[in-house]
Amino acid sequence: MRRLITLCVLAGLLAQPAMAAKKPPVAPPRITVQAVAAMPPSSPQRFRVTLLVDNLNPEPLTVKRIEFKLKLASEGIIDGDSYGLLVVGALEQQSVTLELHSDIVSSLSRLQSFTSGPDHTLPYQIYGKVTLDRRPKTKAEVPFTSSGDAPLTAIATR
Questions:
Q1: How far out from the chain centre does Cα 4 lie?
Q2: Which among 45, 68, 50 is positioned nearest to 144, based on CA atoms?
Q3: 11 domain residue, yes or no
Q4: What residues does 127 pair with on adjacent strands?
Q5: Residues 142, 129 contacting (CB under 8 angstroms)
Q6: 38 belongs to a structural domain
Q7: How would you classify the pairing of strands 93-102 and 77-88?
Q8: Over 90: is that where the pLDDT of 7 sits?
């Protein structure tokens, strides 16, 4: 009986470091649209979109890729991709600015008609997936979605 108790206590002591090493699951980053800037009129229409990546984790997060679809007002969907490593510090935010192209948006003036308020905000919906670098484990793809209002500006022709 004494031997059994000793083995149980020893097993419990050995299991503690293994349990302590187990990290909680990583929360996906929150991704929102900070701003949308329409480039000078062209075909296809070009946009400069600034995304805000918010790391909700107590440790740094490495983002390898962001694939998304962005719906501006009711004017269709714009596809977007961000490649390359982006390291967002623990409980920090980082902005990413991308240039996107779309044949779907009929005209800049039509898009501007959907803006509201003194900041000329435009309703948006964004959804897609984020590929996280989870070394030494394999990469992790996490879905995301958000919606809100983002200011729309027009970049003038030079």
A1: 52
A2: 68
A3: no
A4: 69, 145
A5: yes
A6: yes
A7: unpaired
A8: no
Residue-range definition of the domain harbouring residue 64 = 24-154
In this prediction the pTM is 0.80
List the one residue out of 158, 148, 153 whose CA is nearest residue 36.
Answer: 153
User: Is the residue at 110 inside a domain?
Assistant: yes
Note the pLDDT tens digit of each residue in 105-144.
Answer: 666 777 888 888 888 999 999 999 999 987 666 568 999 9
* pLDDT higher at 67 or 13: 67
Whether the Cβ atoms of residue 144 and residue 28 lie closer than 8 Å to each other: yes
C-alpha to C-alpha distances, 115 to 19, 27, 123, nearest whole angstrom: 52, 33, 8
CB atoms closer than 10 angstroms to residue 95: 11
Name the maximum alpha-carbon separation found in the chain: 88
* Among the listed residues 119, 70, 128, 63, the one whose alpha carbon sits nearest the alpha carbon of residue 99: 70
Q: How many domains does the chain have?
A: 1
How big is the CA angle at 141 (ends 35 and 132), to the nearest 5 degrees? Answer: 70
